[in-house]
């Protein structure tokens, strides 16, 4: 779609060329959402393509994704064999339910910064203890957990003029055992519920709830909880008002499916005979 209110398009090639933020600015990654509907408030586009950032890098410390890494590039990653949770990458890429055209344009950073509850890159990064690297306009940078970065629908922890530069997923999180569950009202519908559980070598358990809630919710346990404890902690952490309500699922359905899939994940990651009380 033509954005006929836009009067300027900037293509910085270095950090020093990032402009001073103005009202009406929009940062352009892949643009798959930006160009999908009218944007009458946008006056200036800041295109990040000119930076030429390396899409992704693997190392002993984990996986670093540039904000402009496309879904197709991420899906094509050949992860080290010791990264047991790496299968989550393709599960979350497939959760887009999008055509190859979208996969080749949509970016990791764009999906996270759009902050829609069903954003699968939010699910992936939050569950794998991802940190966002934020560039500030004065030349500094800061890091924030993606689980905290997304505050609600279309609301993120970017200050005026800040840009999401990259997302880092630590190797320790990628080495954890993991389980994935997703539910939608229709076979090819947007995610209404998306849960990821991970478990460490010491037996600790983390459950990350996305899509069903307005923002990511993460529960961490030192050991696998029993069924009743998990249900009670979910109820305490997610009040009814936090469940999302739109055409892709009513809050009561999202709550029911969240509790159901959480128990399935708990059972999958439990050792035989563990936590059955």
Give a brief outline of the structure.
Pfam families: FAD_binding_5. The protein has 9 helices and 14 strands.
Structure description:
By secondary structure, this protein is α+β, with helices and mostly antiparallel strands. The protein folds into three domains: 8-50; 56-172, Uridine Diphospho-n-acetylenolpyruvylglucosamine Reductase, domain 3 (2-Layer Sandwich); 176-269, 2-Layer Sandwich (Enolase-like, domain 1), CATH 3.30.390.50. It is 25% helix and 25% strand. The protein contains nine helices and 14 strands. It has helices at 71-75, 87-94, 100-103, 108-114, 120-127, 146-149, 171-174, 227-237, 251-269; strands at 8-10, 25-28, 44-47, 56-59, 62-66, 131-135, 141-145, 150-152, 155-156, 163-170, 177-183, 193-199, 205-210, 217-221. It has a five-stranded antiparallel β-sheet. A four-stranded antiparallel β-sheet has the order 11-12-13-14, sandwiched between helices. A three-stranded parallel β-sheet has the order 1-3-2, with no helix packed on it. Helix 2 runs antiparallel to helix 5 and helix 8 runs antiparallel to helix 9 (251-269). The longest helix has 19 residues, at 251-269. The N and C termini lie far apart (56 Å). The model has no long low-confidence stretch (mean pLDDT 92). Pfam families: FAD_binding_5. One of its GO terms (molecular function) is FAD binding. It comes from Ancylobacter rudongensis. InterPro entries: Diverse_Substr_Oxidored (IPR051312), FAD-bd_PCMH (IPR016166), FAD-bd_PCMH-like_sf (IPR036318), FAD-bd_PCMH_sub2 (IPR016169), Mopterin_DH_FAD-bd (IPR002346). Residues 1-174 form the FAD-binding PCMH-type domain.
């Amino acid at each position: 779609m033509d954005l006929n209110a836009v009067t300027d398009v900037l293509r910085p090639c270095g950090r020093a060329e990032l402009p001073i933020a103005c009202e009406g600015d929009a940062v352009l990654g892949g643009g798959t959402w930006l160009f999908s509907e009218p944007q009458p408030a946008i006056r200036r586009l800041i295109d990040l393509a000119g930076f030429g950032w390396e899409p992704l890098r693997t190392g002993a410390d984990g996986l670093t994704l540039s904000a402009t890494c496309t879904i197709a590039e991420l899906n094509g990653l050949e992860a080290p064999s010791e990264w047991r949770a790496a299968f989550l990458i393709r599960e979350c890429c497939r959760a887009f339910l999008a055509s190859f055209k979208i996969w080749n344009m949509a970016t990791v950073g764009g999906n996270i910064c759009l902050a829609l509850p069903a954003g699968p890159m939010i699910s992936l990064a939050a569950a794998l203890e991802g940190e966002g690297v934020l560039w500030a306009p004065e030349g500094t940078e800061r890091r924030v957990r993606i689980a905290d970065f997304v505050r609600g629908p279309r609301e993120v922890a970017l200050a005026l003029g800040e840009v999401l530069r990259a997302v880092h997923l630590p190797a320790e999180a990628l080495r954890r055992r993991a389980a994935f569950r997703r539910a939608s009202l229709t076979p090819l519908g947007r995610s209404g519920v998306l849960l990821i559980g991970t478990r460490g070598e010491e037996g600790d358990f983390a459950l990350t709830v996305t899509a069903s809630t307005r923002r990511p919710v993460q529960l961490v346990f030192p050991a696998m909880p029993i069924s009743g404890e998990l249900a009670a902690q979910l109820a305490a952490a997610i009040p009814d008002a936090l469940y999302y309500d739109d055409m892709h699922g009513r809050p009561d359905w999202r709550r029911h499916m969240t509790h159901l899939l959480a128990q399935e994940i708990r059972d999958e990651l439990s050792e035989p005979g563990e936590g059955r009380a």
